[in-house]
Q: What sequence folds into this?
């Protein structure tokens, strides 16, 4: 009975489903599986694929030459309800030890055989996924070879492989954590395990996540509820710590090793194990980039509340919450209670249900983001292609954006009225790129607020999309009772073409901005409209600035690649969820465009070409998949709109960020410098960006050369 | 309220939905749209996008220089329920005449403008689709140019373009069918319209489809319920008729013209108009290949039944039934009745509902085909990759196949028992590639039927997939009460490898066949197993033959291309629905493989290489997209299994046909010869097909050279 979520608003939306399962240690009888499933109404169970081989029941000394697989159950017969088959998850034996120095060569081979054969069995049964044991060494060559062999021989309908990886590996797992049944290599490897463990402990200080500080906005952007300033401090603190890539107990490095050795295959995921103590937030954050298919919560992570009920500590809930939103499954690692009290399970399950319920409470923008997460789309080209009515309709619902415009217009009108004292004739207020009229509405509201009379102001709307003009004209007719609407002059034309106007504008207002500021060609459009603005006229907005920061996201990069190689040279608009930003500096300014009356526009457009290099310092070992882009725009006075995280206009929903992918992800180490170089190029018909990244003196190809991946039609 | 269909069996299946809409001639008021929608509970309406321009209300003589679009409604405001927006269909003005010689140059330009602007309006409103008028000439350059312009400037979110194409165009539409408002060119073009119409009538004899003959099986394969023999006669008759590609009134040629001129764009579909009289079935059949998004049924197609209720003639229902299964929408062209009796509409809607209900009555195989239609998949490679339990499980449900095997086994056992009279020791019956055991079950049933005793027979099963062996062993244990099961010898090995057997087999039975017979490498496997068969032993099957015939299917070809260029060089398994077979000969044999005891197998495998050329004669102008492949296999005596249409084993569900695409579709004319050349190649590790088509002395590339698209691992 999966927990289903239907959205609060009226629109149909795909149901999101949260799957909560339980991991079973051992099946005593083949028939146990069904019983376990029914207990506590789990959506799925993770069950051991095989029985412990007889040779390991004792000391494991007399290994047979071949692994003799003994299935724990007849899964296919067990899952009699056919539509349930394929939800459950098979667990490969935990005694498997393929690479540790502590075990014999013979046992390593035996283990690698077992890993392959058990995974094959899960694929044969068609389980939804198969959980592989945590590699027992950072040098996991044999482990990766076995995984590769499985991936090579399985048919395309194979099940997913979930690597069980804890945030931080218990040093004992590598050094001395072998079960009694696993034979140690003789002679045992030299350094005493406790010492190694102690050393590891000091190299990688485990600690609780800092206590929450302020606000839910930050929470949605990071596991840590720190303010942005604190976040930067925290990033710097992590950077200055002694931990380096030699940090062999960090789960992320282990996962990366296996992934790299296997060539980053499509079917390989993480089943991320929560630890009682969580690592510093930069270490947590880094998992946002990976394909986390499941979060495994061991019993020890739960605490008791005042009623004696289990609950997760707040930092843990933050982590689970993030991955739930990313559609990961939750797997509770809870042994059968001695009393076999079913309600006992239900209380744990309820903890996750409560978390899921919170997702329903997301506000409109967060919900839209939840829906659109990681969904890539090439930027709109409203200049080259006419927008659809439905697109206008979505944009028009952004009350935050238009409230800011109204505020800016009010201030501008007040200033202009004072400035024009004594001058004759109405003030000319011109909306360029009026669409279906939302800025006209904002203008009229501002005019009313400053109490101007009909004869004080002449309102003009210019729009190039003939069908939007039809709707705008229709709206004018419907609003005939409003004197400002009824006197509105509608001009159906491109603002850059010859427009016959009696008067130039005192105030020109536009909303031509894209996710990266100028990427919908506001500079070119507004240049073309400058002759319609008086010499002392005001442009709203008068400045736009684009921002960038390095981003790590296996998900976004993989999705872009899936679209085709070309899309790795295309800026893509996306609500970035499965990602994190591994730079100390956060988002840095890239290009600035100023819009003031300027009669001497260079027809060659040379003044709109740009080139910038932006430097970043990396906080933590990471893989950089590209650059995330944002913008802010100054409307008038101190009124601005922004999608840059640090200055974000809360609840503004019109823009998601932009993602500039790079063709090959780059592995960067803590403290490395990385430079983002970007060019804004143009020819007679198009404008496009070219970009590259430089790391340790080595540059990537220059991406999107000549606009081969993507260009914007003028 | 779309008619929903949930499947009769227990498995979850995607809901199929049948959409029935009504076309509205004219909106008197903008508000009429909602009223029309509610009438008769239509799933959608097709409504005119614009009002008749004032200049055309009279004689259309004073055309303005530009088309002045006047929307018929404010669609976006009308569709207040947001989730309904996007279901309706906008209709572009029917007076548009872009290419006919009968209208003035000025009017042609005016028409082309209107076509573009109205389509833009539909895209702006975001209607589900937009119906374009039937081109008014077979030389429709200007029409295609306007469509191209629309496709070029629309954003990617544009609506679909549905070309309204009748099976046969009324000659008046080209020659004299202009409305009173459309100005004729002066001087009018020379030949008198009625004469032209009469000439057309004689060139393309309209006639009713021949009366149904026998059975529903043929119906699902063709619009005509003729027997296959009759079908071939009918194909020959069409071929011998005088109609040629000069047949300018054939709707298919017109659609092809527009499609070709526009480069076959993704967003272009047919809205196929039923005519009261239907053309010969080869003309109907040809539409199976095209992307028919909707079937438009004019009122005149309906007849009255004895209760005075409207119903469709049987041939018409066959056509609608086919396209319903192909997920086309149905659009009824029914004017508002003078009485405005809502129930009147409901009666027409009910006709379609009844047809849809019949789809629910499909048998298991037909339902599986309905679900899988046009869904392409690379062939299974059970030799190179181990199959999943779920795949075995699906195959095992094919009762028809195993009944045939049982019958063949029974006959073979009887013959062997007689032959061996006096010989000592049990008869050895060997299943090679036993999987989870369905052929073992068939063997045991046959043994019981011929009343052999346990000591008379030794049953051996060889299987290479270790996980299938686990299930088979498990089954043996469960069937311990059956003496044949409990004495079964299970050998976990590849049949080609050294198997230690006391005795050779008297009968060897296998089911290693693929959709194209030998494509799962049964020849190579059975060669390897020959040494396990006595010199006078029997192989079941003892022969397999592959078959091929040219196929026309825009749908299959487009889907293959979508998967990637490589897939145009890959044989693909598919239930072929949206297709037809334009060759007189039907399916012709390609490769034959015989399986008799043969101790002297050439280790080079040269004897399994093949090359064949197969000739076909084309019945009707068509576009060939590739070759469809089938197989038949002789099991024993006269017992055979077949997926060749002419000899199809009714209700056998294990195999869909195979599709060999070609990289570029070929236009062929009635009476043309076309030759399919195919090679079966191999190297040390792989077997693969290479193929090409030769038409009028010109050959395509040799496809899949060296197995670059697809090869089967030995």
A:
């Amino acid at each position: 009975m999966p927990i289903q979520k239907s959205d609060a608003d009226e629109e149909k939306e795909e149901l999101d489903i949260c799957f909560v399962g339980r991991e079973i240690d051992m099946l005593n009888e083949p028939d146990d599986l069904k019983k376990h499933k029914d207990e506590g109404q789990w959506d799925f169970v993770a069950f051991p694929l095989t029985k412990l081989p007889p040779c390991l029941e004792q000391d494991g000394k007399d290994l047979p030459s071949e692994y003799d697989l003994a299935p724990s159950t007849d899964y296919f017969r067990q899952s009699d309800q056919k539509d349930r088959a394929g939800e459950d998850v098979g667990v490969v034996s935990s005694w498997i030890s393929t690479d540790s120095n502590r075990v014999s060569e013979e046992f390593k081979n035996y283990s690698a055989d077992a890993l392959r054969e058990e995974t094959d069995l899960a694929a044969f049964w068609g389980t939804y996924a198969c959980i592989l044991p945590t590699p027992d060494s950072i040098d996991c060559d044999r482990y990766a070879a076995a995984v590769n062999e499985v991936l090579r021989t399985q048919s395309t309908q194979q099940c997913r492989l979930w690597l069980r990886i804890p945030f931080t590996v218990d040093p004992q797992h590598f050094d001395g954590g072998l079960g009694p049944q696993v034979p140690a290599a003789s002679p045992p490897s030299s350094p005493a395990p406790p010492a190694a463990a102690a050393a590891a402990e000091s190299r990688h200080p485990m600690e609780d996540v800092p206590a929450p500080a302020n606000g839910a906005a930050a929470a949605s952007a990071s596991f840590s509820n720190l303010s942005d300033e604190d976040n930067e401090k925290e990033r710097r603190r992590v950077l200055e710590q002694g931990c380096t890539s030699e940090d062999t107990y960090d789960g992320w490095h282990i996962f990366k090793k296996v992934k790299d050795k296997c060539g980053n295959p499509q079917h390989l995921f993480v089943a991320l194990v929560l630890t009682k103590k969580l690592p510093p937030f930069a270490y947590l954050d880094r998992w946002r980039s990976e394909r986390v298919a499941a979060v495994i919560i061991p019993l020890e992570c739960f605490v008791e509340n005042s009623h004696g009920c289990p609950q997760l500590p707040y930092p843990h809930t933050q982590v689970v919450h993030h991955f739930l939103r990313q559609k990961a499954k939750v797997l509770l690692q809870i042994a059968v209670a001695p009393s076999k009290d079913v309600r006992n399970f239900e209380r744990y399950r309820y903890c996750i249900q409560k978390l899921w319920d919170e997702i329903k409470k997301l506000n409109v923008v967060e919900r839209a983001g939840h829906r659109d997460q990681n969904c890539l789309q090439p930027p709109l080209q409203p200049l080259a292609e006419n927008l659809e009515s439905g697109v206008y309709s979505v944009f028009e619902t952004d009350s935050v954006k238009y409230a800011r415009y109204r505020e800016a217009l009010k201030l501008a009108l007040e200033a202009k009225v004072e400035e024009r004292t004594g001058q004759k004739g109405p003030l000319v207020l011109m909306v360029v790129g009026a669409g279906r009229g939302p800025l006209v509405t904002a203008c009229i509201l501002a005019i009313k607020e400053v109490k101007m009379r009909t004869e004080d102001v002449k309102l003009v709307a210019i729009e190039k999309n003939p069908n939007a003009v039809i709707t705008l004209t229709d709206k004018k007719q419907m609003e005939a009772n409003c004197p400002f609407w009824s006197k509105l002059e509608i001009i159906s034309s491109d603002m850059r073409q010859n427009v016959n106007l009696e008067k130039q504008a005192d105030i020109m207002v536009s909303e031509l901005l894209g996710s990266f500021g100028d990427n919908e060609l506001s500079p070119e459009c507004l240049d073309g409209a400058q002759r319609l603005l008086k010499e002392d006229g005001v442009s709203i907005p008068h400045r736009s600035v684009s921002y960038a920061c390095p981003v790590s996201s296996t998900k976004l990069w993989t999705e872009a690649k899936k679209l085709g190689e070309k899309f790795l040279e295309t800026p893509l608009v996306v609500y970035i969820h499965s990602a994190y930003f591994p730079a100390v500096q956060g988002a840095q300014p890239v290009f600035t465009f100023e819009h003031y009356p300027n009669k001497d526009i260079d027809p060659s457009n040379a003044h709109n070409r740009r080139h910038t290099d932006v430097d970043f310092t990396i906080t933590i070992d990471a893989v950089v998949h590209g650059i995330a882009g944002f913008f802010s725009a100054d409307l008038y006075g101190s009124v601005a709109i922004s999608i840059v995280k640090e200055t974000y206009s809360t609840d503004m929903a019109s823009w998601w960020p932009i993602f500039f992918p790079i063709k090959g992800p780059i592995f960067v180490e803590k403290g490395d410098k990385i430079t983002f170089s970007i060019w804004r190029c143009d020819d007679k018909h198009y404008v496009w960006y070219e970009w590259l990244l430089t790391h340790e003196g080595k540059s990537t190809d220059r991406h999107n050369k000549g606009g081969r991946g993507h260009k914007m039609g003028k």
In short: Residues 1-15, 81-85, 187-222 of chain B have pLDDT under 50 and may be disordered. Chain B touches chain A through 42 residues (CB under 8 Å). The radius of gyration of chain B is 30 Å.
